[in-house]
Amino acid sequence: MTGHYIVCGMGHLGYRIADLLLRLGEGVAVITEGSREDWVGDVEARGARIVRGDARSAARLRDAGIDGARALIAAIKLDMTNVEIAVEARQLRPELRVVLRLFDQQLARQLEKAFGIRGLGMSALAAPAFAAAAAGEHQIATFALGGQAFAIFSLELTAESPLRGTSVRDLEERHHAAVLDVDGHEPEGPPPRLRLEPVARLTLLARREDWLALRGKPPAGAAVPRSPRRRVGPRRSWILVRDAWRNAPLLLRSLFVVFNALIALSVFVFRFGMNLSFVDAVYFLITTVTTVGYGDYNLRESGPALKLYGALVMLLGSATIATLYSILTDFVVSTRFEQLAGRRRLPDGEPIVVVGLGSVGFRVVEELRRANAPAVVVERDPDGPYVRAAGAHVAVVLGDGRFEETLERAGVARAHAVVAVTGDDAANLGIALAVREVNPRARAVVRIFDADFAAKVQTSLGLSAALSASLTAAPTFVAAALSPGVLSAVVHDRRFLMLARQEVSPDLAGRRPSEIRAERNVRIVLRPQAPDGAYVVTSGDAALVAGEQVVTLTLRALG
Questions:
Q1: What is the pTM of this model?
Q2: Omega before residue 325 within 30° of 0, cis
Q3: Of 73, 227, 323, 369, which is the most exposed, with the fewest CB atoms less than 10 Å away?
């Protein structure tokens, strides 16, 4: 067996990788110690070689045909196990292309820089899709290039769309969005003058800011970036007062309300008891409560009962002021302790609530932070590995997300969306159903491990999105094994789309992108632009320059 790809581990991710390679017509050998028998039977029936055993064993790697393999993908859940597999594989085949599943992206960067081993995180690849679904965006994949954030988006034109009648050339030249396909078909040749009509379905590649400008509005749920030096306006002051009141114990709040009610009632006592006008009665009451009188009005000529009542009001005023000071002191001290403990308060507005702080949940929170969207985390385990790291930046509510009481404490009643990404499908569905009871308007995005079941659940339960992290991440793992320099890959409309950064070789210098596309079926979609080298959508057909770093799009049909 030669010219094939070795997949180590066949959990959810490994199975999706093997399945995708087989759909691309590639040879596959799978090394697995234990997997679902239906998965093993499926890939074996379609031509994959199954090797039972530990992929860290040189003998098992030889059984899988490592001497003739094109690449190896280690997709086991444990980072160090995948690193051990890579070390063993490189000892047997030093030039073999190796792709690892690694949560630790710092380690991944170091391995790639030192040894040319590509490390990808399933959670890091899947998180943008969950965050986009929560915000209501039709985002398929994202990648970073030269400090810029690019994404692949899906857009459906309607009769009311401002883009109706726009040409593909206009989209690429004026809106800086590369049209990857129209209704499942790639536009032929250079940017055509094809007019887009409803109901057309487009797949676009663009920078995030260009996409937002194209839509004409910011993403739902995103917070507006604020200046580092914020003015304390009326709304900000009201928020501080509200937070201080909510933070105070019930006893203090009750006393403060009762004391103020008695003080308000005293206006009428003094008005009728001293025969004062309403305004004079208010004035007299304030001087009595604050104990700054008496000058113009006093109780010297009043009866004993009214004098005793006046003395009571003085004590009442002192008690009210003391209660107010207690509320403020409690707020200041508790806020300071929360800051020292790394805990944060719930954000204002309509936050996105992430339930489950595992590897995927943590990456989703990071993605929301990058998008400047207000986020809240709900986690059951106070000693979870990511609780402290997440709590340094967002509010963390401890509790079971399936219970309405926990969701209410997390602010789900006013949330824009809830993302359920625990490691249990049943728990995620339970959370989505509980969210309906607390806030029927909130978007419900759930993680479902089985991709086929996810599609059924989304339709039958009316969820905003049901996503499989392994299905979302698998295309990029496959693309990284097929070709170096891969930035991102997706499966869309039964086609495999692969974006890679490549250097223009001397033999291609002076050639035009349209010529390369016609000869090699590779489209150049992004090119660096002078003077800063920022990448822009390729809208013209200028000749290529030797050494130029371009981004290419390759499409392959799936079986």
A1: 0.76
A2: no
A3: 227
